[in-house]
Amino acid sequence: MKLNGYKVFSFFNILLMLIVVLVTAYPIYYVVIASFSDPTSLSIHTGLLAAPLKPFTTSAYELVFQNQQILKGFANTMYVMVIGLALNLILTALGAYFLTINGPMLKNVITFMIIFTMYFSGGMIPSYLNIKDMELLNSLWSLILPSAITTTNLIIMKSAFQAIPESLSESARLDGASYLQILIKIMIPLSKATMAVMVLYYGVSRWNSWFAASIYLNNSDLFPLQLVMRNILNMANQMAGSTGTGADEMAQLVELIKYALIVVTTAPILALYPFLQKYFVKGVMIGAVKG
Amino acid sequence: MKHKLLKKILSSVLAATLVFSMAACGNDSENTVTSSSTKEETKAIESASTTESSTVQESTVAEVTYPIEGNVTLTIAMLDNATVNANAKHLFETPLGKAWQEATGVTIEVIQCANNDAMNLLIAGGELPDLIFFPPSKYSGGAEKAIKDGVIEPLNDYIDEFAPDLKEVLESNEIWYKTNVTSSGDIIGAPFIRGDAYLCSGAGLIIRQDWLDELNMEVPQTPDELYDVLVAFKEKKGATLPFTTTNSWMRNIVNYGMISSAYGQVKSDWYQIDGEIHYGRAEAEYKDTLAFLNKLYDEGLLDPNFASNDNNTVYSNMANGISGVTVGATGGYMGTILNAVEKDNPTYDLTGFGPLVAKEGDVAYSGYYSNALTGDTLFMTTQCKNKEAAVKFMNYGYTEEGYMLLNFGIEGESYTMVDGYPTYTELINNNPNGWSMQQALAQYTMSWNAGPFVQDKRYMEQYAARPQQKAAQALWAETDAAKYMVPTLSIAEEDQAEYSKLWADINTFVSEMMIQYITGTADLAKFETEYLDQLEAMGIDRVIELRQEALDAFNAR
Amino acid sequence: MHKNKKKEFFLIRLGKDLRKYAGAYVLVIPVVLFYLIFCYKPMYGVIIAFQDFSPIRGIAGSEWVGLQHFKDFFESYYFTRILKNTLIISLSTLIFSFPMPIIFALLLNEIRNEKFKRLVQTISYMPHFISMVVVCNMIKMFTSNTGFITSLLGIFGVPEASLLTKPEYFVPIYVISGIWQQTGWGAIIYLSALSGIDQQLYEAAKIDGANRWKQTLHVTLPGISQTIIIMLLLRLGNIMDVGYEKVMLLYNEGIFKTADVISTFVYRKGLTDMEFSYSTAVNLFNSVINFIIIVVFNKLSKKFTETGLW
């Protein structure tokens, strides 16, 4: 009987998951087929799309890849992401680990100092002046450094470290291991799944960020991909209301590349997840490590 | 000589501009850089047109000689433009930018700002470039404050000597001049000017001409006629949503008076009659416009989704015969829809109509109308290191050569003179790199966008316009809109806090009530008690008073 | 005298502490530096909330207006409405959206077929990446008078008109679309927590004769409870924040009654002028409330569950 109950549950569970896949996959599918559709047909199409509207075209992708800015943007984003991500992970792990160490007198002060920044910040202008004073304007470091730590991520990391039995690090201390050694040899290996989450969270936010770039950079050669994309898409909105008799042409061009642009700028980051998935597989044996 | 140039400019400027989304501007009258074209202006243009001689005087401007000596380098901060950026790093690396630098003898270093925030922060940073191309109205507190704060260096001390052509152009038109000075008489900078009232229209009501023909109906001119047409479209043409639009265009219908003339109101936004300011949304006549729209809504003639529609939905409603009437711009709307249906439905045809009037043959008080001076201005900062050269550079766009360069690009390359008419070459019309015409224009001209010069109509004449678009453009310009237009006003600094506090709430209230009355969520029978009285309680009288003061100050300049 | 002694004593203690934990403090130095340089150094900026700030004059040169901006905000005709709407949207999101990723992660955890599981996981998190503009366009499409959601509701007697023109549908649309877009992404953290549960605990439970349901109740849930609490606390600390982007893409003046929130109100006001001071004041107000909430709930949480953010 019990077994049967579980089978029924499994059946509905799988069914439910299939529905989830359908409803979540469709918009992706829509964007992809829209990117291969004829833009004039697309602009007057209503309702769902099952297949690309004819004539099937790759011209949007050709236009996207012809755009110098997009290619430069891609390079800039990669640069910021690789260096930034490394910095994110190092600093977050260091900070999170410190907050789990029992004993230091200043721990509470530092904890409060970190939490406080989640709610209070100086705002855009002082931050800008700060970057300016450090002479980081017009440098990709202005994107990398100010977002070196996201406090919520640090807290998530901390809670993962906290879940590791204290006895592990204590015995390591007794064996003469330094704090850094404990972090590298025990804490991080035992929280691989959370580290993978960090890679994903930080990676995605690095990939998607554009605002800092828009205010700290005055040289379009340095613009990251998302900022380039935003500028192009914003133009589409402006065109719709324009009174110029030739504006339709440009509006359509933007409409044409809109979806291709979304595909090109999203696909690389979507590909990150499958690589990280193996860290989510069950089977961590804390006891085994302990022993 | 210079008068010749001026006449030429005035007579030839006849176009609309592309880039500034009027839908967006129209949302908020406070935001709109409202221009006013008075009778004088129209007259000036008329007389200029009539006396225009086709001879092009080969003239070099007397006072300023280009190129400027001494290998000057100037820094200029400007907003990035994605159309330009698609094929060049920034404006001054385009063929136009290079020619401009060569002609003026000035090397330009560009500080690219991605958006308004970036520009404001650049200014906040305190290290200013020599020149900035940006609407001063977007500086916190406006041009007046920017001068007071020491951001803008007014041109008063320099214009006579170094920018005689700019001076000439500004002085040729009272409104242009007044819009470009502050109430204390400071000359702000080198503005982008659409020289003709005609350039400032370019949006209005649009209808399926082929359906009208099939039904043997005339283009509607009054609300009743429009109503009949919509009923006929619904019953005989199967249009399920005969009149479709978006929220922001609905606002434009009301704000620009596309219907209100029929009910004796200029428009349901800010307007002025002989120097007296009015707020249409606080007037009793506004109710009639709402009642008409509400009737359309109730009877299923007006698209019930209008408040949440986006532009694409409207295009598709129109293209697929779900709707037969809409409202929009010549380019973004008429052009897009016609483009979309051309292949499959060759008989499909659109006509612009309206603004509606009380009886056939009347001239509407108002219609869609934006500003001669859009607000985009090239200004000099107080930290400019070479003011003489900077002002001379600013002046260039208003000289004859500069005028031709910025409107049409490089002679022999992007245009050639054919019988005295600057004609774009294949490089623009049919670009070998496969660029759209606009992308090509963006590399060779500024006329497609905005810049420190006067825009020429002949650019637009060649810009792929269909006859329907041209006709609509002409029709929509035939109103007295210019007469009632409120110019760009700046509220006195000491009143600004009070004004913005009152206005923020009122603005939300009126926008909200407009939709509620149209959709019948709020009861029009209680218009006076629930709406007008409430507006009064929210301090509309004080807001009107403050704007009146600002208008008086403007007129006194 | 006494005070001085105490201070001295403190400093000695601190010195000892610093020496004892030198290895730990060294690790945290870069982190502290980061916070000092990039968060605390610019923090003086909040004082523009009490000024009539002009960018070029800077904070030193701008005029002081005291609590004027706060007063303006509280006195606004719409203050109670936007506050109410903000809280309703925020709490609805908390109540309905917050549990979804947890439920989803647990259900996914029960899927035996690894390949299918990975597929579901990979696809379900994708909507997170679709730009808000595209998502909102789709929502509008589906909820227009001919949209399929509207038609679906039509079967249950809901009149077929655009749902986004009716105030009563805004919050459900906002919340449900949020669930659709963020559940898969939100589940990632729980999936990682699930993978961290010691497998021996399941073995032990099985030996004790616990069925799947009991295992979930007694092993799985406690295993991820800490993560749930942390995520919940983080969420509670943002109760006053409803971002303007999505709301602005979805709303129209006809449904301001339920859709206008603090951030959109400030955004619209900001359009009139570059009102740095006003928006800073409103943000400060939000932050203070958020901060109070987080402090209170963190305390409660530590008391009852022994888990907290700090």
Give the gist of this structure:
The complex is a heterotrimer of chains A (291), B (557) and C (310). With 291 residues, chain A is mainly alpha-helical.
Description of the molecule:
The complex is a heterotrimer of chains A (291), B (557) and C (310). With 291 residues, chain A is an all-alpha fold. Chain A has a single domain (29-290), classed as MetI-like fold (Orthogonal Bundle). Chain A is 72% helix and 0% strand. Chain A is built from 16 helices and no strands. Chain A has helices spanning 2-35, 39-44, 59-66, 68-98, 107-116, 124-133, 141-144, 151-162, 166-174, 179-190, 192-208, 211-216, 225-240, 247-270, 272-276, 286-290. Chain A is flat and about 70 Å long. Chain B is built from 26 helices and 13 strands. In chain B, strands 2-1-3-10-4-13 form a six-stranded mixed sheet. Residues 7-62 of chain B have low confidence and may be disordered. With 310 residues, chain C is mainly α. Chain C folds into two domains: 2-64, no CATH class; 75-305, MetI-like fold (Orthogonal Bundle). Helix content of chain C is 73%, strand content 1%. Chain C has a two-stranded antiparallel ribbon. Chains in contact: A-B, A-C, B-C. Chains A and C meet through helix 1, helix 4, helix 5, helix 6 and helix 8 of A and helix 1, helix 2, helix 6, helix 7 and helix 8 of C.
Number of helices of chain A: 16
What is the residue-mean pLDDT of chain B, rounded to a whole number?
84
Oligomer: heterotrimer
**What is the top-level CATH class of the domain at 2-28 and 35-198 and 374-408 in chain B?**
Alpha Beta
Query: What characterizes the major β-sheet of chain B?
Result: 6 strands, mixed
Q: Which pair of protein chains has the largest interface, and what are the residue counts?
A: A-C, 92 and 92 residues
* Biggest pleated-sheet summary of chain A: none
Give me the count of strands of chain A.
Answer: 0
The CATH architecture of chain A = Orthogonal Bundle
Unreliable spans of chain A: 283-291
CATH topology tier name of the domain at 2-28 and 35-198 and 374-408 in chain B: D-Maltodextrin-Binding Protein, domain 2
Q: Roughly how many Å is the radius of gyration of chain B?
A: 24 Å
CATH class of chain A: Mainly Alpha
CATH topology of chain A: MetI-like fold
Outline the low-pLDDT stretches of chain B.
7-62
Report how far the terminal alpha carbons of chain B are from each other. 28 Å
Supply Rg of chain A: 24 Å
Tally of strands of chain B: 13
Helix amount of chain B, in percent? Answer: 40-55%
Strand order of the largest sheet of chain B: 2-1-3-10-4-13
